[in-house]
UniProtKB/TrEMBL annotation:
Residues 5-128 form the Transposase IS110-like N-terminal domain. InterPro entries: Transp_IS110-like_N, Transpos_IS110. Residues 116-151 are annotated as: Disordered. The lineage of its organism: Bacteria, Thermotogati, Deinococcota, Deinococci, Deinococcales. Signal peptide: none annotated. PANTHER family: PUTATIVE TRANSPOSASE FOR IS117-RELATED, TRANSPOSASE FOR INSERTION SEQUENCE ELEMENT IS1111A. It comes from Deinococcus oregonensis. Residues 126-140 have a biased composition (Low complexity). This is Transposase.
Length: 151
């Protein structure tokens, strides 16, 4: 199984991909990568996952719900049929404190979010909803990747 930890900012997304073996600790795959926090950047993130051969039911994507910046990428990942878990930032902070880790950079945060997801297995989230049941930012999200992780 794979776990992708996302730390989002207003201008960039930082992503850490881990492989979680049946037993033992999660193993980082490559380095923490960043893409623009735009529709195009979200598409680059999905394309990178596909190129790496990961995705679908075997990959859990974990991200924090901070401000409203997380909604666009969450919608894109949800539309791509990713196993998405949006967690409260306080849960990640608690995880870091419990294991003596300090969050200092976006890259480190992405790694810690992935490691938290690998250990805690957070529940799958539904797509975010805006006012009157409408999905915020849905018009800005591309449907090109819909179902690309399903094989």
């Amino acid at each position: 199984m794979f776990v992708l930890g996302l730390d989002e900012g207003k201008s960039e997304l930082y992503a850490r991909l881990l492989q979680r073996p049946e037993s033992g600790q999660a193993v980082p795959l490559g380095t923490v990568r960043s893409v623009p926090n735009t529709v195009k950047g979200h598409e680059q993130l999905l394309a990178g996952l596909m190129k790496s051969g990961v995705g679908g039911a075997g990959t859990a994507v974990v991200m924090e719900s901070t401000s409203v910046d997380w909604e666009r990428v969450a919608i894109t990942l949800h539309e791509a049929k990713c196993h998405l878990s949006v967690v409260n930032a306080a849960q990640i902070k608690f995880f870091c404190e419990k294991y003596g880790k300090k969050r200092k950079t976006d890259k480190l945060d992405a790694d810690l979010i992935a490691r938290s997801g690998a250990m805690r297995h957070p529940a799958r989230s539904t797509a975010p909803r805006g006012r009157a049941g409408r999905t915020p930012g849905a018009a800005a999200c591309s449907g090109e990747h819909r179902g690309t992780f399903d094989r």
